[in-house]
C-alpha cells in the first residue's frame, strides 16, 4: 500500500508519496532504451568496419591470385563446354523445343529467387548432358529440373534450394518424386561429377570488379547473355567470350564510354557481337517481363527503345536512295526503254529503199544522182520514154553510167581565200 506524507506550507497543504517508485521506473526505462540503442549502433558500426576490412582483404587476395584464378577458369570452361554438333543429332528433342524449356526454367529460377549464376550453370549442365546422352522428349523437362537442382545445391544458398516436391508441383505432377532423384544421380554420373563450370556471370563479376559499379550495365549484360541462351549459335560459345561481348554491346546500347581496363577485359569478339545483335529483335516474353521490372533497372524497356530507333534509322537509309532517284531530272536519268533502239542501231540490217519523189526527172546525159540508188520503177519509166521516142522517130541519147561533169564556162570560179601566217 502506498504511503503519503503531508506538509503545510505557505502555498497550502502538499501531499507526496513516501516512495516515488513509479517515476523512478519511468526514468530507468528511458535510460535503458537509450543505452541499448547506443549499443546497437556501436555493434552495427563494428560489423560494417569488419565487412570493409574483409572486402579489402578479399580484394587484395584476389589481386594477388587474379592471374591464377583466370587461368583456372579458362581451363575449366574449355573442359565443360557443350558440343552443339552432338546435340544436333538427337533423335527426339529438337531445337524448337529449347525456348519452351528455358522459359520454364527461368520462371522456376525467379520463383525460387536463385542466384544469376545458378541459371547459367543449369543450362550448361542441361546442354552437357544432352551432348552425351540420348534424351527422350518426355524426359526433357525432367533433365532440366535435375540440372537446376544440382546447380542450386552447388552454388546457391541452402534455404533457397528447391525441394523435390516443389519441382514436382511445378511440373504439374508429370514425374514421380523418385524420378527426380534417379535423374539427378544419372546426370552427375554422366558428367563424371564435374560441376565446376565458370559461368558468364562469374566472368562478368570479374570484369566489373575492375571499374566503378554500374548496375544498369550489369543488368543489360545479363539480359543480353540470357537472350543468347535461347539460340543454337551460342551453345558452344565460351563463357568468357560471351561475357566480354555482351558487356561491350551493353555499354554501346546504354551509351557508356568503355573504361580503362586490362587487355583481357577489353578484348571482345566482333563476330559474336554482330551475331548477338541480330537476335535482339524478338526476345522471350518471359525475359522481357523479368528485366522490365524496377529490380533490374527496366533494361528490357531500354533495349526495346534502342531497337526501335535503330529500325527507324535503317528505314531512313533505305528510303533516301529512292527519293534521290525520283528527284533526278529526265536528262540525267535515262529511261530503261531507250536502250532498245540503241541496241537496234548497233545491229547490222539491210537498208529499206523508198520510192523516188514524183518531181525527179532524168538528166539528159545520164542517170540522176539522187540521195538513193534508183529502183525498178525508175528503169521502167526510162523504157517507156524510149518506146515513145522510137514511135515518134526521135533519137534518144544512150544513157551514160557516170555522173556528167559540167562544161567549162568563161565565168570565173570563186577560189577560197588563202590565209597567210
Automatic annotation (TrEMBL):
One of its GO biological process terms is: cell division
What are this entry's molecular-function GO terms? cyclin-dependent protein serine/threonine kinase regulator activity
Specify the superkingdom. Eukaryota
Instruction: Tell me which SUPFAM superfamilies the record gives.
Output: Cyclin-like
- Name the CDD domains on file: CYCLIN_CCNO-like_rpt2, CYCLIN_ScCLN_like
Biased region (Pro residues) positions are 354-373, 401-421
Instruction: Report keywords, A-Z.
Output: Cell cycle, Cell division, Cyclin
Domain Cyclin C-terminal: start-end pairs: 198-305
The record places domain Cyclin-like at: 103-189, 202-282
Q: Which family does it belong to?
A: Belongs to the cyclin family.
Recorded hits in PANTHER family, A to Z, give: CYCLINS
Q: Per its record, how is this protein called by name? A: Cyclin N-terminal domain-containing protein
